[in-house]
Amino acid sequence: MPELRGFLPPRSPEGRAQLVPSPPWHYSGDVLTLEYRTTPGAVARWLPEGVEPAEEEPDAVALVFADWQSCAEGGEELLDPVRAQYREAFVVVRCRYGGQTYSRCLLIWVDKDFALARGWFQGYPKKLGSIWMTRPVAVGRAGPRLEPGGTFGATLAAADRRLAEARFTITGPSQTGGFVNALPMLHSRWFPAIDGSTDALDELVTMRSHDVELGPAWTGTFDLVLHEAPGEELASLPVREPIAGYWRQVGATFAGGTRLA
After folding, report:
1. Residue range 27-259, CATH number
2. pLDDT digits (tens, 9 = 90+) for 226-239
């Protein structure tokens, strides 16, 4: 029998049909981060058994919009941009496990299938959605400049329903891109058994990016509206108090993680 090849399905005789090649995976993109405090106790309801809210800022939430270009080690996707470019929006909180503080993604939407599959492998709970972000410009008038007064919009929708809409206005440069999504990630990787009686895969893992390159960061004020929608629970983390918004370019590499439990 011939050997079937591929890192993720579908595996095939030559391996070219695989949805995602093996790591390392490289990412470069524009990232808009909106940090706020939500209703006390709302974050705790989203944490699995054994994982607790962070000791400091336990109700802090970051809604992150990102416009990425990505590729595997060979970089072939970059010459076929439909396989390299995607957008996503995700919700991050801070939590504690084993005496250490982590960042944790609670919800995430992407607009490409390869990003969805790659995230499931990592432990990101990805769903399909529609994400749009205003692009900064260096020439012309069809976009904001990266300077005080520049105003950006971002939207998230899924299953034909608008879930979030944001407006961000730069007030000045920043030394940071925020604090909520700035720690090693704590993910749950799980998959139910075929008979539904238990989980065939159930593990807690941690990971962080490598070879990180950061562009200049900008901070500012924002308005964020979250909408109720069938089949969604983003609105269970309402904006009680804005903290700050941030915009910066980010480059990073994912090369793997560590199983904790």
Report:
1. 2.40.400.10
2. 999 999 999 999 99
